[in-house]
Amino acid sequence: MKKNVKLKIAAVSIYFLFLIISFIFGYNSGREIAFNLISFLLYMLKILPCAFILIGLFEVWVKKEVIEKHLGKESGIRGYLWVILIAGTIAGGLLVAFPVAYSLYNKGAKLSIIFTYIGAAAICRIPMTLYEASFMGVKFTAIRLLVSLPLVIITSKLLGEYLTKRNYKIAEGR
Amino acid sequence: MYYTYAITGLILLISFIINKEKTIKAIKIATVKFKKIFPTFITMLIFVSIILFLFPDELISNYLGNNRKYISVLLASFFGSITLMPGFVAFPLCGLLLSKGIPYMVLSAFTTTLMMVGIITFPIEKEYFGVKVTVIRNVISFFIALIVAVITGIFFGEIFQ
Question: Do A48 and B127 touch (CB under 8 A)?
Fold first, then answer.
């Protein structure tokens, strides 16, 4: 493990050194990479800190029983509808969906609901869907949603049941 | 950017007024969680910056524009899987490609894999759900995207031409 960390630090240092040298000597490829890094970093800084604060608030305010009841083992179709609704209104795509899904799981949501959440967060966020339709047309967006959403639900259900049978547990303390 | 911060700030303020201790605890939880995943985010950012350099928009446009649309669908789903683009970048690009005559099914494969399959986000997903589940979810998502592309092709009359 220690050796691994050292290697990582070395690789990251080389990367940044390369970027700095590229700037000094005007090497264009290196500058482009730096530009990509900065623009994506800014994009993530727009959402990530907020997302984590909201996750923190969710963890202290929302009672475990509430999540267990609506998204847990006993929840039926309504659980899926709930989670799709939640996913549809939360911004940020997959990157935000992972920690949110993780918190939902720790509050007692079942696995198939978690995977549905991740899938839905990827494909049917409401603002993004409207934006998509404005560029691609309503027909395109409608087909995409109507085909992918049922497939997401079905595969999540199957995957969730398969993993539950195998006693799969998500790692703790993330 | 400002309105996500404004809304979060407002919610935080309301929470603080209702219960000071709980709110401080929430911020502590947020900080701890963020710190734990932060190094992985940096790793991911480094990969993103290199991948976007190796596969810029122009290159993707060129490859998707060839005449063999089935190959284009596969290429599109490959590009969509390995790159990471926020929606406000991806959809204008797709709108542009559409106006250049690239079939709907190709763009459908591209956008759906872009949204659902994350090879670049793999390190982060793995931190939360483990390698096995991450691989399974991404493989399933890839096939869902292909199915979506085929059905899009059928509805837009592109598939049997």
Answer: no
